[in-house]
Amino acid sequence: MPQNEYIEAHIKKHGRRLDHDERKRKREAREGHRISKDAQNLTGFRAKMFAKKRYAEKVAMKKKIREHEQSKVNGTPKEHNPEDGDALPTYLLDRQQPNSAKALSSSIKQKRLEKADKFSVPLPKVRGISEEEMFKVLKSGKRRNKSWKRMITKHTFVGEGFTRRPVKLERIIRPSALRQKKANVTHPELGVTVHLPILGVKKNPQSPMYTQLGVLTRGTIIEVNVSELGLVTAGGKVVWGKYAQITNEPDRDGCVNAVLLV
Amino acid sequence: MATLLPPPSKKQKRLAQEPKDLDLIPEDLPNVLVRFQASDTGENTGGSVRVPGAATEKQLEMLLNQLQETNDDPTPYTFSVIKGEGDEQTLIDITDNIWASILKPGHKSTEDQLTIVYTPRAVFKVKNITRSTAAIPGHGSTILTTQFAPHTSSRMVSGSGDFTARIWDCDTQTPMHTLKGHSNWVLCVAWSPDGKMIATGSMDNTICIWDAVKGTQIGKPLKGHTKWITGMSWEPLHKVKEGHVPRLASSSKDGTVRIWDIGAGTYLRTMAGHRSAVTCVKWGGIGFLYSASHDKTVKVWDPESGRLQHNLTAHGHWVNHIALSTDYALRTGGFDHDTTRKDFKASDTELRTKALEKFNKLANTSGRISERMVTASDDFTMFLWEPEKSTKPLCRMTGHQKAVNHVTFSPDGRYLASASFDNSIKLWDGRDGKFVTTFRGHVASVYQCAWSSDCRLMVSCSKDTTLKVWDVRTKKLLSDLPGHADEVFAVDWSVDGNKVASGGKDKMIRLWSH
Question: What is the C-alpha separation between B321 and B298, in angstroms, rounded?
Fold first, then answer.
């Protein structure tokens, strides 16, 4: 047994031999000859195994060819195949189904059935952000000698109806240019991305204070409004809030990208 | 800080100032002259009677029972008043008392003689279903259709995507028989009105007939259709000739309707007139066979000769479903809520005469046997027809905002409910097609609905995984039944009203009870 991936390591280090591609091509070109030779000469168990494998390959090939031929002949969509997909009642058979919400809801249920780890998130670890990086010190006072005011340098989510406090009392400023209301949320199983409104910041891994301030950094768990996806709970109610984790650094990209936690 | 409400606008102030109508009955209300008329036979009961103008429904009921000398065993009735003459005749329901329903809105004055049409209500009462008594696994794939037996609520059959149909014992909530024989999804099931046979139609283009008691296959699969079966309907029991087994009509995606002889295992007639897939077939009780199709037409056939009688064209898109006002009588044959007891025994002849009696009673409107039909379509509308009388529709029912998938008449033919993909169910008057109300509550497409046999309740199943029970009288949601883990495709209410069965994408049969 190889103890390490030393072959890959060697290839990485020294490259392949110069005639590697040509040798490969030649070997592939002679593949038919080798199979023919094996088919004629192998005996015993090895012959059995060889025949079995070859038979399976031929069946697969024939199936594929037939499929191609049929698709060329009628050009219609595939017949309802009993083996794959879910059965449909007669009244839904000939209808185009907008499938997304359905796939979403059933995949979520599937997940629940599998009892996947509830607390695992796509980004378990993030880089720590120091207070110096997060806050910029603002000078205030007539002589500009007071420095108790801070301004957040990261993007933030500020809830609707927020009013700034009087200047005298406002210790931490969340710049309005860095405020975000919507996030590009990706559904991991479907691979679709939707622009959804943010409902709140649930957890910033850096510190609970940042959670309170609504700071959006990589790894932050946010709640998004998924009502337009049309998900339904087991009780038949429309789901509208769901959690998502931010996957990018919003202050570098100027937008919030997140992945839905399902 | 608490939010302050804005001060009322001028309009609001003005409205608040205006005198309000009180539902008080004026004290000087004179007596009115009324005459009772039976809704089925059209005959008058008693002569003209003077009643107080404020007489309530209950009082009228007592009076009528007295006139008919059924005081010791009173029958509940609903009342409506005839307005207009001849063709413009309409019925106005008395919901509370005569004053509030008739006199105050100005339909009639106290000077007129009122002709009150009475319809007996079901004497038994189905209890509201509130809980799931069982979730029975067993099917290996999506459940596509369910139906209760016509003669008992302890048997139910379901068809599934795992190529089998199953007969369930609903008393013990266990499977009884697995009907294996198809090589593709079982799309539709139909229990014969004599309760002895079950027909299953499949995606593999065949129909199988099964013995409902033993669970064994009768004869060979019926082959003939070239595409899958979309619907089936048994011959009404009162039309079956003495000593014969009922015949079966089937519709298929291939655009034909076939009539099968079960004994011989062959088809007797092929009705090929539709230019596209046939979606639904119904065998009516007055000697017509109705079929709806994707080619926008509804065709009326004579099942004996296989000849086309009428071609009803009014829809602008696919026709999805047909319901008949007599569906309940046709489905249950000679049985009713009372004969669903275990010890009930009746010969074929008895059942047949009883079925005819029941059909005549249900189809009898103002002294004439008639069958109304309603068709639901992808053009968001429904049409009400009376094919025997005219090829023109009686009424066009508009209001849905998406395709209408399913329509059902209430067992007494008084109301009809339509389930649509626009998340709502609408209730219409089954006699003239007038809009009654909308049931909102589902958050996704409603697939099917089923009536309780006393016509007071209705259950609907939806894509949003729930069943909902609606009260027809108060026009409100009565109970919300979550439980399924995925879309619910099929629902049915048993004939005696004790159980509801549903099945769907989560592969579970669920039984519901009060």
Answer: 10
Q: Three-class SS of residue B318?
A: coil
Which ipTM did the prediction report?
0.70
**Pick among B253, B463, B488, B502 to test the A interface (most A CBs inside 10 A):** B463
Give the span between the Cα atoms of B98 and B115, in whole angstroms. 12
CATH of residue B87:
3.10.20.90
Q: Which residues of A touch B492 (CB under 8 A)?
A: none
A88 with B144: Cβ contact below 8 A: yes
> Are residues B480 and A238, on separate chains, in Cβ contact within 8 Å?
no
A31: left (phi over 0), alpha (psi -120 to 50) or beta: alpha
Distance in angstroms (rounded) separating the CA atoms of residues B277 and A150? 71
Does residue A166 sit at the B interface (CB-CB below 8 Å)? Answer: no
B161/A87 touch (CB, cutoff 8 Å), yes or no: yes
Q: Say whether both B102 and B189 belong to one domain.
A: no
**What domain range includes position B51?**
28-118
Test A91 with B405 for CB contact under 8 angstroms.
yes
* Alpha-carbon gap: B391 to the closest alpha carbon of chain A (Å): 26
Statement to judge: residues B56 and B162 lie in one domain: no
Nearest CA in chain B to A80: B203
Does this model's pTM top 0.80? My answer is no
Residue B16: inside a domain: no
| Fold observed for domain A129-258 | Thrombin, subunit H (2.40.10)
Q: What is the pLDDT of residues B210-252, one digit of tens each?
A: 998 888 998 889 998 999 999 999 999 888 888 888 899 999 9
Residue intervals in chain A for CATH 2.40.10.310: 129-258
pLDDT in tens, A188-230: 877 888 899 999 999 999 989 999 999 999 999 999 998 877 7
Residue A90 near chain B (CB below 8 Å): yes
Write out the two tokens for A237.
Answer: 């109610």
Q: Note whether residue B17 is domain-resident.
A: no
The answer on B282 and B167 residing in a single domain is yes
Structure tokens at B108: 């009639």
| Residues B103 and B190 placed together within one structural domain of the fold | no
Give the gap in angstroms from C-alpha B185 to the nearest C-alpha of chain A.
7
**pLDDT tens-digit profile of B134-163?**
889 888 889 999 999 988 888 899 999 888
Higher pLDDT, A89 or B342: A89
By DSSP bridging, strand B500-504 and strand B155-160 are: unpaired
